[in-house]
Amino acid sequence: MSCDALVVVTLHDPLQTAAGHGSRLAQRAIDRLHQLEQSWSRFLPTSEISGLNDAGGEPRIASSDTVRLVEALVQAWHATSGSFDPTLLGALVQLGYAASRDDATLRTSLGAEIVAQGNPAGILIDPDTGWIQLPHGTTLDPGGLGKGLAADIVVEELIDAGAAGALVEIGGDMRVSGQPPTGEAWTIAVAPVAEDDKTRFVQLCDGGVATSTSRLRTWVHDGEQRHHLIDPRTLRSADADTISCSVIAGSAAWAEAFTKVAFAEQVPSALECYDARGLAASITTTDRRQHDSNVWKEFCR
Fold it and tell me: Residue 269 is part of a domain; what is its CATH number?
């Protein structure tokens, strides 16, 4: 998760805008994102996630934010039938993704007992006390879901603080709610796979949009090209026809989690999953063809 973010706030009263209320809300949002970054980054040894990963199977007390995050990670694993797996940090590090892409001086350091793939079903959470226990050897990587959930949380808090509308985008994961600056719906550009691809636009009033692609975070390790989207069955970089998937859902965290289905399943099976859940999704394959779920067109501009 990175704190490089876009925050847009709209207000009910033009006088509030003139008085700088929107700027103050936006700054509060940026500060809140920084706080979540400090709690959730796997690259920061002082974060709560790093503390859980280093606990050696012992329970730890965490903040309500981190409890919500861990609950969301486990729920997403269940909902996607394991296509999204938050316990693949060991595999990522083994494949050479230990250093932060934003600051190479920050690195994930794991003990010898850490396994490539952990056990999400064995994670214990007591939301009343903040008590979390990971199975011995299991580690968590909030990854894109952490970014999406951070956007969800901050948008919720902006609306609660009196904003008429809010948009928060972090690394391609976006959440919107309420009144946009113009029009009746937020118009959002879907990131193209390549620079020469045509940009597409979707519109929504309240919800999340996320895109995952195997073309963005890439590196060479042991002479092989790798990317950060790990197939939970092989524990290798996913070798799928899909090179990009965008999903629209009720939250940015949910949208992010379900993009992973397109990299773990064949395209027809992934589309069946999206249609069964009524999710808007668009998959781009290596031949540059786009495969859309049944409801995707309802959001296209």
Answer: 3.10.520.10
CB 40 within 8 Å of CB 146: yes
Please write the tens of the pLDDT for every residue from 142-189: 999 999 999 999 999 999 999 999 999 998 899 999 999 998 999 999
* Residues 116, 76 share a domain: yes
What pLDDT, on the 0 to 100 scale, is given for residue 18?
44
Q: Is residue 272 part of a domain?
A: yes
pTM above 0.70, yes or no: yes
**Neighbour tally for 166: CB within 10 Å:** 28
Transcribe 56-92 into DSSP letters: TT--EE--HHHHHHHHHHHHHHHHTTTSS-TT-HHHH
DSSP for 88-112, written as a single string:
-HHHHHHTT--B-SS-TT-B----T
Tally DSSP H helices, then E strands, for the chain.
Answer: 9, 16
Question: In CATH, what number is assigned to the domain containing residue 122?
Answer: 1.10.3980.10
Task: Give helix 143-160 / helix 64-79 axis angle, nearest 10°.
Answer: 120
Q: How far is CA 37 from CA 2, 12, 44, 257, in A?
A: 7, 30, 9, 19
> Which residue range(s) make up the domain with 230?
185-299
Structure tokens at 121: 């079903």
Positions of the chain with pLDDT lower than 70, given as ranges: 1-3, 14-19, 195
Looking from the CA of 35 toward its CB, the CA atoms found within 13 Å total 12
Q: How far is CA 119 from the centre of its chain?
A: 20
pLDDT at 14: 66
Where does residue 65 fall: left (phi above 0), alpha (psi -120 to 50 degrees), or beta otherwise? alpha
Pairwise CA distance, residues 64 & 83, whole Å: 26
